[in-house]
Predict the 3D structure of the following.
Amino acid sequence: MKKVLSVFVAGATLALGAGQVLAEEASGIYVNPMAGYYMYDGDRKLDDDWMFSLGVGYKFASRWAAEVAAGNVQSSPKSTLWNVDGLYHLTDPQMFRPFLIAGVGSIKFKPKNAAAADEEQVNAGLGVLVQLVDNLSARAEVRALYGNADDSVDAMTSLGLSYLFGHTSKAKPVMDSDGDGVADDQDQCASTAAGTAVDAVGCPLVVDADGDGVKDNMDRCPGTASGVKVDASGCPVVADADNDGVADERDQCPGTAPGTPVDATGCLLDTDKDGVTDAKDACPNTPKGALVEANGCTKKLLETVSLSLDVKFASGKTDVPPAYRGEVEKLAQFLTQYPDTSVVVEGHTDDRGADKLNQRFSQLRADAVRRVLVGEMGIAAERVTSVGYGESRPIADNATAEGRQKNRRVVAVVSATVEK
């Protein structure tokens, strides 16, 4: 077996300097003069020896070929054999081209102290062709041969030449320095490591996991949904017709003039949220909720307004009943709309009870409304004053229960803005 391997290795070394790709597949008749070594199954009682053979075949314009070969083993006495084989090349035309071979045949031999025998065989093996010049290649192969008469297994190795008639390659070999199967003049990655899978231009094959056409090593947005149009970095192409930096699908103000600052919705900036864009806002820090003019400045209250709060206090009580808090909220909203105003909260009582006690209750009730305005509704303390008038300012007849309830009231007087 060592002799078999040594002969086969010798043939394979002829492939040094390979890595050249041929441009077209040859076809035609070829001949193979071969020399090699034949090793008999030990049960045959024959000595292994050198052998010589001659084959004739036809190479199809594909990876397939068919051939017939006959040969002699130089043992004493000589053995003769023949084969009909099919051959399949494992690669497209290259300087170094491996192949598989298999077929049927027979061998005629004479074992020691036995009659001559003629045995049918099935063989299979592998080999390599190394192109030397146009139409002429070196050929090396190794085979196992199975005899069906006595289940014997012989082995042989061969080294020789293969000459193809009737075809001259018009295309010259082109170099493939890194042996990746892509010719140097088309290879955009000329130093690919051996064994690396490459694409049509000889560059390492990189996966495109999300199928967006951008390889993973260049994709800044992996996982893009199927069918989404992407840019060269693999990120979705976002339409922005007015070029304001906000995608059309989120742009609530399409058609913004180029270069105009916009907010996240694509609309002109309105920093203080008063409804007047910054470009037109003469008062860019308007308090939230204030009424503004067209220039973004707060509207001025030009006359004093007296607002009656429908807040009813139970007799002897000073806390604002929950049912009447909405009235206080209306006052707070009015003050927010006119941030330059101030308010006086007036407390009043009916005439039942002592004057001093009524005065105290009216002040406490006015203070209760003030606490809600300042402490819960955010009105600045310096804008709110509370005053108790006791029973001194009735608006109805204290002689009736209905009149007395009307007199137990709170009134807010909002001062007008004075402009000079």
